[in-house]
Amino acid sequence: MSISLRGITVRQGGFVLDRASLDVPSGAYGVVLGAAGSGKTTLLETVAGIRAPASGSVSIDGVDVTTLPTQSRGVGMVYQHSLLFPHLGAAANVGYGARRGTAVSDAVRLTGIEHLLDRGVATLSGGEQQLVALARAIASEPRVLLLDEPFAALDPPRRAAMRRMTRALQRERAITVLHVTHDVNEAALLADTLAVLDAGRVLQHGVATDLFAHPASGRVAELLGAENVIAGIATTATDGAIELRAGRLTVHALMPDGGAVTGPAHAVIGADEITLSREAKETSARNSFAGQVIAVSGAGALVRVEIDVDGTQLVAVVTSGAARELALAAGASVHLSFKATAVRIC
After folding, report:
1. Which of 268, 253, 259 is nearest to 223 (CA)?
2. What is the layout of strands, in order, in the sheet containing 302-309?
């Protein structure tokens, strides 16, 4: 059951979801990524039929459902704050709307909530309520599953387990999922298709791996978690190499498709693409700079290093062992390098 939005506009007080369009193919896991207040829940409620758009259309499996009531759309929805029926216990909540007893028992087993079934809703923690709400949605065996930050209240181990379970269930049953989140890592782990939503507008949508590899703008790159997004002026040389000047810093790039860029642009460099050393080294990388460490943070396997390079701040990620070996600390002088092919221009 595919999902298709075309030019959806929804007005809610002073907020406008502005001409939003996206597609989730049948049986795919679609994710909408955006910050708080970007319109994620409004978009999801429009697909569900809870909100009526001022213009545009919503189609499910090729059928225009824009004017159909929620109960006629065959969708299940899980809200961030669960919205369980307070007058029903956990077991009755899970069974509400289910057509088969085996569907209820399967949902209980998958979410691991057997120990909660005798509890009242008021006695459940926020995370437990989210699990019951997820089980209720699964038990209804929807054609389309809509998820609004469904794992936000869970502790990290349970969150990871529920992500794995939901993804496995989606693949096994070929359920079409539309999941909204502000968590970039969650989007990267789950999404087949991805839409980036900002202030009510879909900035880019398509295959998730394509968006991460080729963000359409600096803003999209930032929302996708890029640490180094440098605004500047780009020029293209006769050999196809691109130079982006940002203040006193010049970044060299090579477009994989050989495209030319001229004018205002952004250079995007992954923090893990940057190599650090304490002294200048011979390197084939076209980007090699001297800098000064501003800050070092991180207590796990990876360490985040902020560096000032000619007035531009860059971020590198190195292993904790490399950080110790290089004696990285605020004020230390370092050299950093990265390949021109590691730079994305947008």
Report:
1. 268
2. 275-277, 333-338, 287-297, 302-309, 312-319
The alpha carbon of residue 58 and the mean position of all alpha carbons in its chain are separated, in whole angstroms, by: 22
Sign, CA dihedral 229-230-236-240, equals negative
DSSP-assigned states of every residue in 148-174 = ESTTTTS-HHHHHHHHHHHHHHHHHHT
Element of type H or E holding 51: none
The one-letter amino acid at 236 = T
Query: Parallel, antiparallel, or unpaired for β 201-207 and 193-198?
Result: antiparallel
Cα 196 from Cα 346, distance rounded (Å): 15
Estimate the share of the chain in helix, then strand, then coil, as percent rounded to the nearest 5.
30, 40, 35
- Which backbone phi and psi does 112 adopt, to 5 degrees? 65, 40
Residue 152 has pLDDT above 90, yes or no: no
The dihedral sign for the CA sequence 14, 19, 25, 31? negative
In one letter, which amino acid is 319?
A: T
Q: State the CB neighbour count (10 A cutoff) for residue 71.
A: 9
Task: For residues 321 and 339, give the distance between their C-alpha atoms in angstroms, rounded to a whole number.
Answer: 23
What is d(CA 64, CA 119) in angstroms, rounded to the nearest whole number? 40
> Among 258, 307, 264, which Cα is nearest to 287's?
307
What rounded mean pLDDT belongs to the chain?
92
Q: Pull the structure tokens for residue 310.
A: 């000619």
CA distances from 152 to 126, 291, 294 (A): 9, 39, 33
pTM exceeds 0.85? yes
CA distance 261 to 311: 24
With beta carbons less than 8 A apart as the criterion, state whether 293 and 342 touch.
no
Closest listed residue to residue 303, CA positions, set 316, 314, 313, 291 = 316
C-alpha span between 269 and 281 (Å, rounded): 20
What is the Cα–Cα distance from 116 to 309, expressed in whole angstroms? Answer: 55
Each residue of 105-123: pLDDT tens digit? 988 988 889 999 999 999 9
